[in-house]
Design a protein that fits this description.
The protein is mainly alpha-helical. It has four helices and no strands. Helix 1 (about 1-35) runs antiparallel to helix 2 (about 40-65).
Length: about 100
């Protein structure tokens, strides 16, 4: 059970990380350079939903895997930084 929750958290972390990069490096330039704001609306909404799921799964994995507050905070803060979830992926993989 613990492995499943950590595995799900790791998977959503990767998906959320990619959606953040798509938002920043594809949708935002399309909006501001080409003038199509719909790209940010679609990708932004998708990323927002993924981020909420990420936070919920982080709380569940934190509880089940008995991570320290410091580790869980690191995982959360890393999700706010571009490429951050990819750096913490190796640390999360240890708990699988």
């Amino acid at each position: 059970m613990i492995k499943n929750n950590v595995k799900r958290f790791r998977q959503i972390g990767m998906i959320e990380g990619y959606s953040f990069l798509i938002l920043l490096f594809i949708a935002m330039p399309i909006k501001y350079i080409l003038g199509y704001p719909i790209a940010v609306k679609i990708v932004g909404m998708t990323h927002g939903i993924l981020f909420i799921v990420f936070c919920l799964l982080l709380a569940k994995a934190w509880y089940d895997a008995r991570w320290s507050f410091k580790e869980s905070t690191l995982f959360f803060v890393a999700s706010l930084v571009p490429f951050g979830t990819f750096f913490t992926d190796k640390k999360i993989k240890v708990y699988e």
